[in-house]
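To make this tangible, we now present a fold written out as C-alpha cells:
***
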Amino acid sequence: MYKLLLLTLMVTVWMTLHLQQTDEEAAMKLLHQGKRAVNRAAHAAALQLDRQALSEGIIRIDEAAARAAASSYLAANLQLSGNDWKPLPNSPLREPIQILVFQIIDEGVSFPYVYRNDEYDYEATLRSPGVILIIRMEHPRIFTATKPIGWEIKGVAEQVVG
C-alpha cells in the first residue's frame, strides 16, 4: 500500500516539475520572439529617412515615419492590435506591451555617440544616426500561483554610413 502512495506522490512531483520546465521553455521562446521583434522594429524605424534633408546631404530620421514603422513591425511580429498594443487571439502574449523608450539619435550629437539610460540600465554606442527602442513585455505563467515573468527588451539600430 505504501508503495502505491509513494508512486502517486512521485508521479505528482515529476509532473509538476515537468510543467514548470515547460513553462520556462515557453517563456524563453517568448523572450527570443520579443527580442527579434524589437530588433526588427528598431531597424525599420532607423531606415525611415527624411527625404528632404537627405536631398541636402543631411542624414535625418523622419520621426513620424519611424514611429509608424516601428509600431507596424511590433504589431506584426508580436501579433498585436493597432496602437493599444493588445494581443490578438493568436498572439503568444496575454497582456499588452508597453513602449518605454523610443528615441531617435541623429542631429545635434557627434558620432560616435554613447547613449546611456540609467533607468533601464542600458548603454549603446552609435556610430551613425539611429533609433533606441525599449519595451516591457510579460509572459503569462501556466501556474497561476507563480508571478508572471516580465522583461524590458532593448534594441538599437543605426544607419550604415560609409
